[in-house]
């Protein structure tokens, strides 16, 4: 029997049409996009087509898309680019949440070491960062707030538009790390009212090693890579044409079937949740159950034993005890700590995330295996 892949929040497989779109640029169209000859122009045109495809998914102008090497680079460019625009002497204050991915938390810590002010706001017991908490953290020198759109572990969706209104009333920019939400739910930048938004290609059936940053027109950034001036001077270096083409195709796929995909993912996730709940009852809890969540994400706390042990007893299932970045860490992740989980709950956490290629049969098999493992540990 094939492996049961329930780790779509860690990474997704490359969609077949994405692979096909990339193939010509691995061999036939190999020109440098900055070259003026025909091969160079072909690469540049492909990049601009991809820029338009991603802009269409996000609801922005193509000129507002900057291609990067990954979601982490996009986050670094957003945070460092805003804070360092006036140089270290200009100071400035940044607000993030306690449940951010390390791709936000670590750049924030770096900026703090340089002398910039950083404030961290908590989430409530349902995994939601309250707009009022953000408002209280703002200072006269605050220049940027960065709150994730959807949590990578619990799937809880944050009230970004409400936070944006508070920020803009104080002339503060808002960035959101949307690596987990783009391609799963609607992420229109005008509806969210954000100034900057990060995208990771491999979270949306594109290749690893490519990302993007939406930069609203009029927002200025200090580049973190200096060189030849590619990407409107914001990201120097010869563009990764092949992977950018893959990201563009992935964005086009997501645009075509977003509503249908969201409905199907919700049905599958709810089926898995129901099967586990029926069998285990109060021997499991669900993180963010009362909050709006990504349609594909189920974060469960099994109380019969450690999540690692449960997954070790179900080798057919590819899943995680938290986010991929914290899996195996042996300590509570920021998301777990923010939810106020007990030691037993945190120890038994397993994140199950479904995707395009998950079937009802996969759901039923996985549920049976997990239930059997819990019963064995209980005995």
From TrEMBL:
Signal peptide: none annotated. Keywords: Iron, Iron-sulfur, Metal-binding, Pyridoxal phosphate, Transferase. InterPro entries: Aminotrans_V_dom, Aminotrans_V_PyrdxlP_BS, Cysteine_dSase, PyrdxlP-dep_Trfase, PyrdxlP-dep_Trfase_major, PyrdxlP-dep_Trfase_small. Its cofactor is pyridoxal 5'-phosphate. It catalyses: (sulfur carrier)-H + L-cysteine = (sulfur carrier)-SH + L-alanine. Pfam families: Aminotran_5. PANTHER family: CYSTEINE DESULFURASE (PTHR11601:SF34), CYSTEINE DESULFURYLASE FAMILY MEMBER (PTHR11601). Catalyzes the removal of elemental sulfur atoms from cysteine to produce alanine. Seems to participate in the biosynthesis of the nitrogenase metalloclusters by providing the inorganic sulfur required for the Fe-S core formation. Belongs to the class-V pyridoxal-phosphate-dependent aminotransferase family. NifS/IscS subfamily. This is cysteine desulfurase. It comes from Lignipirellula cremea. The lineage of its organism: Bacteria, Pseudomonadati, Planctomycetota, Planctomycetia, Pirellulales.
